[in-house]
Amino acid sequence: MNLHNARYEVTAVNPEQYPEHDMPEVAFIGRSNVGKSSIINCLLNRRNLARVGGTPGKTRVINFYNIDDTIYLVDLPGYGYAKVSKQEKASWGKLADTYLTSRKNLKLLVLLLDIRHKPTQDDMTMKSWISASGIPYIVAATKADKLSRPAVMTRKKDIAAVLSIPADSIIPFSSTRRTGREELLETIQKLLKAEI
Ligand SMILES: Nc1nc2c(ncn2[C@@H]2O[C@H](COP(=O)(O)OP(=O)(O)OP(=O)(O)O)[C@@H](O)[C@H]2O)c(=O)[nH]1
Ligand SMILES: [Mg+2]
After folding, report:
1. For the chain, domain boundaries
2. What is the distance between the alpha carbons of residues 30 and 38, in angstroms, rounded to a whole number?
3. Ligand 1 atom at minimum distance from 142 CA
């Protein structure tokens, strides 16, 4: 599969708008502003394919990116942004929930956490939901460039303990320095049993 042959395909708010195909989808999920769109751009070597928000919490849609007609990367709306009304939160939650619970093509989830912060209640709820769902998943810790190497190791262990997962399974990632890119691509490839 040629990673360079990537294109934005469609934006959806309801299932009728999801693209119709029989390829696997890898969805990126995490708090608003955690770096979901940035990681997609980094993986695809593109600066602005996925929109990186100056204003967090603004992505209220699901964006689908078609990679070489082989797999899709899916940018889900971020959860947990404080400065929105309860009603808005509920509608975003529903958007992501509907995708997560109904999408047959969803074969792999990448849960993103900010490496600097303790996982929030929302993160823990999401992790529990994912592990109960049986959908294979990867945890990546974003913005690793903001910490020193030893701090990255410590934070990895702390996050692992909170989420009850092995520390080694967390991939520290930096979209600015491109750290973790190869490891994440390899892990995606392994779990999807696909050539990337
Ligand atoms: N230093 C650093 N900044 C990053 C990294 N990843 C993302 N950012 C910055 O964090 C902010 C949010 O990034 P986005 O990729 O838009 O985050 P998002 O999760 O898509 O946000 P929503 O769409 O609002 O849910 C932007 O200002 C990015 O430039 C990273 O690895 N390192
Ligand atoms: Mg985004």
Report:
1. 6-192
2. 12
3. 31
